[in-house]
Fold:
Amino acid sequence: MNIEQRFAHLERSNRRLRTGLLSLTIAITTVLIVGQVRVPNVIQAKAFQVVNDKGQRLVKLDAYLGRGQVTTFNDEGKILVQIDALAGRGTLTTYNGKGQELVALKALDTGGWVSVHNLKGQEVVGLNALDTGGWVSVHNLKGQEVVGLNAFTDGGGVVSTYNGKGQTIGRLRSNDSGGRFSIYNGKGEELVKLVSMEDGGYVTTANHKGQPRATLGMGMVYTENDEGQTLVALGETDNGDGMLSTYNTKGQKLVTLTTLKDGGGAVATFIGDGRITGGIGD
Structure:
């Protein structure tokens, strides 16, 4: 190796050494700089937005009227979902592509609440948690409640139907001792009542004033006047005989027809004080 070749080799070695020292310097500097970077524990801002490749807003996180709010949008800028804090309680609302509210979930003082709306913004179904239990309400297109389902603290439930004036038309209720079904007129007066109890059941019909007129049940049929006095009674005696009795307006028995188990029968008439004045039969 001549002198020129030695100088060339020495120059190449010198260049490699300088390159290595420069790389080492850059690496050490990078480590020192990175070591000084601190990731913040909390990032605070008044609003955050997430946009798509076209710059259209899809998600917004902000403070609205002093409360936190999260809103999602479609590519046309219409609201799809909104999570909000209203009066210290959480709400979640969903919308269609036109910005119309369809379903709302809210937290109330009594419990959770769900509301379903039609395309006109009218509530058609509501679900609520009350102190007494669950509640479901169905509304017509005028916003009037037409069907209601409730649960009571006694362990029973009730289903009610209403007319366009909010008056009860039909009601079905159950409890631990049995069930009851009632039909009302447009004035809220009960006209028909079906009741089941642990020891039997009965049906009562009433006049337009809600006053009972006839009762069927427990092996007996009764008709009554406006004062609630029995006028006619048809049923079975304690001996197993059939009996039909009529009464005056004072509740005094006047005539009794009795059929006996042995095939016989009898008719008895009475005066006001209950004394028999005549009789026919066995």
Observations:
- The mean pLDDT is 78.
- The chain is about 10% helix and 50% strand.
